Amino acid sequence: MPRSMQALRTLLSVVTVLTTVGFCALLFFGDGFRRSFGASENGALKVLVTLVVQGALLASLALPSQRWLLHAVAVVVLGLLAASFCVFRQSAFVGITGVGDCGGWRGYYFQALSGVK
Q1: Is 70:109 a contact under the CB 8 Å cutoff?
Q2: 91 DSSP assignment
Q3: How many CB atoms lie within 10 A of CB 114?
Q4: Tens-place pLDDT, residues 17-38
Q5: CB within 8 A of 70, min separation 6: which ones?
Q6: CA 41 – CA 22 distance, rounded (Å)
Q7: Model pLDDT, residue 28
Q8: Within a 10 A sphere around the Cβ of 70, how many other Cβ atoms?
Q9: Can you tell me the distance from the alpha carbon of 76 to that of 97, in angstroms, rounded to the nearest whole number?
Q10: Can you give the pLDDT at residue 117?
């Protein structure tokens, strides 16, 4: 495996883990803050979906030889890209981060497919 692909896998893995931990921390610790303003608490579905999607991304990074997994996660990444554009109006930083992460995974996807026999 080329060093550039290994470096990209490591970078994407670290970013995926950090964003997952950060998002879950915001959901858990932010609920008390939201309730203090009278808002409803976040549902468990948000955490569950986040963990499943990020787990799929990490699995595709750990198992680049599984073509079916790469293709399935490519569809998920397209959904994440669409969600990043939808979020962009509310938070430019989150939207740009999402688009950048999807772009990085796209680069990994094409490198992994060209290396799979």
Answers
A1: yes
A2: -
A3: 8
A4: 988 888 878 777 777 776 777 6
A5: 60, 64, 109, 112, 113, 116
A6: 17
A7: 77
A8: 21
A9: 16
A10: 46
Question: DSSP secondary-structure letter at 43?
Answer: P
Q: Domain spans of the chain?
A: 3-115
Calpha distance 75→53 (Å, rounded): 11
> What are 46-77's pLDDT values in tens digits?
778 888 888 999 999 888 888 999 999 999 99
Count of other CB atoms within 10 angstroms of residue 101: 19
CB-based contact 9:108 (threshold 8 Å): yes
Q: How far apart are CA 111 and CA 65, in angstroms?
A: 11
Q: What is the pTM of this model?
A: 0.78
d(CA 84, CA 110): 21
How far from each other are the two terminal CA atoms of the chain, in whole angstroms?
Answer: 13
In the block, which residue shows the tokens 């808002």?
A: 39
Cβ neighbours of 29 (radius 10 Å):
9
